[in-house]
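TA notes, week 10

Several of you asked for a full example with nothing omitted. So below is the full record: structure tokens for the whole chain, then the designed sequence directly under it. When grading your own attempts, check the secondary structure regions first.
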């Protein structure tokens, strides 16, 4: 009864806060002054959740990967990959798919400073305008900042250290330059990241007589160097606009790994070089009718990876693997308002893309893979009183062919429809009930297909891809209630056919890790998020409801809990809980203190693995303050205070236990300094970097 009363009270509190804010906005509209809109830490929309990275010091203190680990409901794991509220994520950057995954994705995000990111969008219900290959959800990393007239510059820097067996340092620096004049605008973001880190791994096997055999015990000392340039320029032609984007990211990393196990001792050196380039040209045609838009886009991306592993003991080359991926995409999108019920909008578009992927092992081509997709979509949106409706479908034609050095790939040639439908009932503004269905497809990532080993291996451990993987078809169902961005409760289930999963197999003392298809799986997810203002406990509900506050400026505790269960035929599985607690306290002198705690329960199944230790259990603390009229932001932090962030998994059907630990307990500082523009009333222009999402298309067109 107490829990029911508390939930009802918080719901009423959210409603009163929203009504008060709406009244305040109406009053402001009558005044001839410039109103500055404060970004929200979290914003819930009908189809996505938006996290403000730039404005939250506890998120932008390290790498993008470290910041993502702190988001409530998001799991990042070497085994589990990247999931949000139980949905596997397809990762985009500035509206464009990265087309990389697994270890390459983790290395890419680990090498990118979090203070180069403006915000993170997690699109939980991708509509027809998004590729059907986007899977259950999309994580869109938005790196662009907003340019102003005249010139502006922002410098960001950070340093942090870990102290385990030795002290390891990490430094990052970046500079954002942007300008706008009457002819064109431009933006340049460049920076570097240097990281020293450690990884300790242990793989053991429990014998029939309960004795433990140590198959592999390794200590890796790693150094990563990353440099990036993000460039954009835009030309305005009356109502129309031409945007040109070019991104380049170069990552060079090395590792010294000492290992031993049953029958071997090793001392190896590995080197990885990755060069990723992405170029986009977008022409935006605008009309007298502001609700009518036409966008034409051409995108070319290239990703090159070179991995080498050498034995110091025997002075020999163990692995020499390379991969080259080229991706080209052409798409046209058109949208227009039309009168149906209270109001309406329809969108149509088409897309053609091709991906070519080639891998080599010691100069021998062992995979030549080509994927071509042609697609078209139509989507209708309308409103009727308190109801919102979205109905769409996407048609995609696939042709996947290729061969290894020994055989041809199983071809995949199909034409499919992918419908989506959303019904939303709005109780009051920003309080809604949402029901969604969509069908999606997940094509095997090139990392999963790659027959080469791009991980450390030794005589007892081997990692390989599977070129014969087939696509996965998903049917996704979801219901959710959301109240004013911060409070929500939802349930979703995904029914997947031909799901791609990692499997571990054991032959005597040889452990191999690869990807396989399983016929069918159901993934159930229950999620709840609830804000608890501390004044609720000190002043009571009655006084709290009278208070008109900005939730980003008050003391509160945000609670997120999620339950996930994988239902696999002929396998007895158990679910697991995910818990995130984030507390914000505004100290004297406007110093903001944030404590963030993540954990999961154990003994639950993640596909064919059972967690023996919590995923990414960590307590992170940060203090931040703004100086010089908010132009300078300084934060100090300590992550993984209790040194609990580690992984321990058993592989179903094997006697193997896999354990790993990174040097996650770290302390350091970050600073951001923005040089103010001389004209404080300069009009703010939209983001220059190209976007793909609905929200960003609207922003660009304004």
């Amino acid at each position: 009864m107490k829990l029911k009363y508390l939930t009802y009270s918080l719901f009423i509190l959210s409603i009163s806060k929203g009504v008060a804010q709406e009244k305040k906005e109406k009053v402001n509209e009558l005044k001839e002054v410039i109103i500055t809109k404060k970004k929200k830490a979290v914003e819930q929309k009908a189809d996505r959740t938006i996290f403000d990275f730039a404005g939250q010091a506890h998120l932008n203190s390290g790498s993008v990967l470290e910041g993502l680990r702190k988001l409530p409901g998001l799991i990042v794991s070497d085994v589990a990959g990247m999931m949000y509220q139980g949905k596997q994520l397809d990762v985009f950057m500035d509206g464009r798919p990265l087309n990389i995954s697994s270890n390459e994705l983790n290395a890419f995000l680990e090498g990118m400073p979090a203070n180069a990111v403006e915000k993170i969008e997690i699109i939980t219900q991708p509509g027809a305008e998004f590729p059907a290959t986007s899977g259950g959800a999309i994580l869109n990393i938005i790196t662009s900042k907003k340019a102003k007239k005249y010139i502006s510059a922002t410098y960001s820097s950070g340093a942090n250290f870990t102290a385990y067996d030795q002290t390891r340092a990490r430094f990052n620096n970046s500079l954002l330059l942007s300008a706008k004049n009457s002819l064109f605008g431009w933006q340049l973001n460049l920076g570097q990241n240097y990281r020293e880190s450690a990884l300790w791994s242990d793989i053991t096997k429990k014998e029939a007589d309960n004795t433990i055999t140590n198959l592999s015990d390794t200590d890796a000392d790693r150094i990563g160097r990353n440099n990036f340039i993000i460039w954009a320029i835009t030309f305005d032609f009356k109502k129309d606009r031409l945007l040109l984007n070019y991104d380049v990211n170069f990552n060079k990393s090395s590792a010294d790994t000492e290992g031993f196990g049953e029958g071997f001792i090793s001392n190896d050196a590995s080197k990885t070089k990755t060069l990723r380039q992405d170029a986009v040209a977008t022409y935006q045609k605008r009309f007298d009718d502001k609700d009518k838009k036409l966008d034409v886009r051409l995108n070319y991306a290239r990703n090159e990876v070179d991995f080498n592993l050498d034995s110091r003991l025997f002075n020999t080359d163990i692995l020499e693997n390379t991969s080259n991926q080229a991706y080209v995409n052409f798409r046209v999108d058109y949208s227009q308002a039309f009168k149906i019920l209270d109001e309406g909008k329809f969108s149509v578009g088409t897309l053609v893309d091709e991906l070519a992927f080639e891998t080599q092992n010691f100069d021998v081509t062992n995979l030549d893979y080509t994927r071509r997709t042609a697609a078209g979509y139509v989507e209708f949106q309308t409103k009727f009183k308190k109801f919102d409706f979205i109905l769409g479908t996407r048609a995609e034609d696939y042709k996947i062919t290729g061969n290894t050095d020994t055989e041809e790939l199983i071809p995949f040639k199909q034409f499919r429809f992918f419908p989506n439908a959303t019904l939303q009932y709005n109780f009051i503004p920003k309080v809604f009930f949402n029901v969604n269905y969509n069908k999606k497809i997940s094509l095997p990532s090139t990392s999963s297909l790659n027959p080469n080993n791009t991980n450390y291996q030794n005589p007892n451990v081997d990692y390989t891809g599977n070129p014969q993987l087939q696509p996965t078809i998903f049917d996704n169902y979801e219901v959710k209630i959301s109240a004013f961005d911060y409070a929500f409760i939802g349930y979703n289930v995904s029914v997947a056919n031909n799901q791609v999963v990692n499997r571990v197999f054991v032959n005597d003392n040889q452990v191999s890790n690869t990807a396989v298809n399983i016929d069918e799986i159901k993934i159930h997810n229950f999620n709840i998020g609830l804000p608890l203002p501390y004044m609720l406990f000190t002043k009571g509900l009655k006084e709290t409801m009278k208070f008109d506050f900005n939730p980003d400026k008050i003391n509160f505790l945000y609670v997120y809990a999620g339950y996930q269960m994988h239902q696999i035929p002929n396998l007895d599985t158990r679910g697991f809980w995910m818990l995130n607690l984030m507390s914000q306290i505004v100290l004297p002198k406007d110093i903001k203190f944030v404590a963030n705690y993540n954990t999961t329960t154990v003994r639950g199944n993640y596909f064919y693995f059972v967690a023996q230790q919590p995923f990414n259990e960590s307590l992170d603390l940060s203090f931040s303050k703004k100086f010089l009229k908010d132009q300078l932001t300084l934060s100090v932090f300590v992550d993984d205070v209790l040194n609990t962030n580690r992984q321990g998994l058993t592989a179903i059907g094997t006697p193997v236990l896999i354990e790993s630990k990174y040097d996650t307990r770290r302390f350091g500082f970050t600073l951001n300094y923005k040089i103010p523009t001389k004209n404080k009333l300069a009009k703010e222009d939209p983001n220059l970097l190209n976007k793909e999402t609905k929200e960003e298309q609207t922003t660009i067109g304004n």
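Confidence is low (pLDDT under 50) at residues 1-37, 146-150, 679-702. Use that as a sanity check on your answer.
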